[in-house]
Amino acid sequence: LYSADAGVCPKSHPNVYYNGKYCCKVNKEKHYKPQKSKCDGSVISRSSLCCERDQFTRCPSGICNNAACAIRNEWDYWGADMKGGRSKVARRNVGACIAKCRRTKGCRSLAYRPSDGTCWLKHTSNGARSKAQRDRQSVNMTC
Fold it and tell me: Residue 67 forms beta bridges with which residues?
């Protein structure tokens, strides 16, 4: 894992896609049938090829990595919590939450609250919605 401080999408377009070359304003693919699952209107991911409403910008550093195993500080992957996926982690650091996600079948991303050690495991990449949030760290595990 690496810090989200280098090679990240701008806050106005926080969702990386197209293998890190572009950043989308919304956390959703545009629906475009010829591209099949790469543009099916689902939650955007690094392998997506289409951005909803074509609201995108090029990655300012060439390749952005913020949606692929980066720890995103002050960012929340909200929703899409796994059943029984909310808990406190003993070591009270994002690394303990990442380890828990790796041990849990079906965990694709997580959100962590440093102030009290709460860890939310997610069954989708980037949760249901991705947004700026104080006292949160989020990690997409599908990289």
Answer: none
